[in-house]
Amino acid sequence: MDLFDSYIKLDDRSGVKYWRKEEFTRNNWIAHLLDIFNHQSMIATLAIENVSLSYLDTVKQVIPKCNSLEIRHTCSDDVAKMAFFKLSLIVVQSVKVRKNIFRKDNDISKFLTPNLKYVSFDDPEYPFKLISDDLLTLNSDNLSIEPANITEKELNKFLKLWMKRNHTFYRPKVIELFLKNGTEIDEEEVFKGVKYEAKYDEQRLKRRDGKELDVYIAYNYIKFQFK
């Protein structure tokens, strides 16, 4: 389905069809379709490519809610950043950023603070640089980053800081980091000076306040699961 001012082009198995309404703009068509397929006025996936910055306000006004937001690699860095902050407010389930928009300033932390159920960053060409403080600022239930550029020293620091934060609320449930191909995580360095209990193929950390953290490492992949 392609939307234009005054008409829609629909391409299905029976062929191409056109819906025309001369006085309609693309915004009118979106509102009309949401009304026809009324599912709590929510679309499944909203994908943003390289639109203008000003058009993001229009998108937010016309689409009240979406289950998933995907910011694609074709976006400029400015559009991608603004789309994240403006449109994540209408997202119910997940936000996926398909490019590294932090190559210049390396400041990913402010993108980890929104309260979301699931957020992921992936860019096969440019790894996302991380430090322990970035992970501690996370305010989403689930985070996935691929590939992540983070050292064992920073991972170790994150574990030690988490252990010290007794009776401190920490929202995340799962953090998954995929380091770049060819990088193997050194488990000894990650757990250096950290008290843990070996549990099957995971290591379990326990804080004095009763909170638990299971850590699973497999080659270039590390998963933190908070309980």
UniProtKB/TrEMBL annotation:
InterPro entries: F-box_Sdz-33 (IPR012885), Zygotic_Embryogenesis-Asso (IPR053222)
Pfam families linked to this entry: FBA_2
Top-rank taxon: Eukaryota
Domain Sdz-33 F-box, first and last residues per copy: 108-165
Protein name (database record): Sdz-33 F-box domain-containing protein
The organism of origin for this protein: Caenorhabditis nigoni
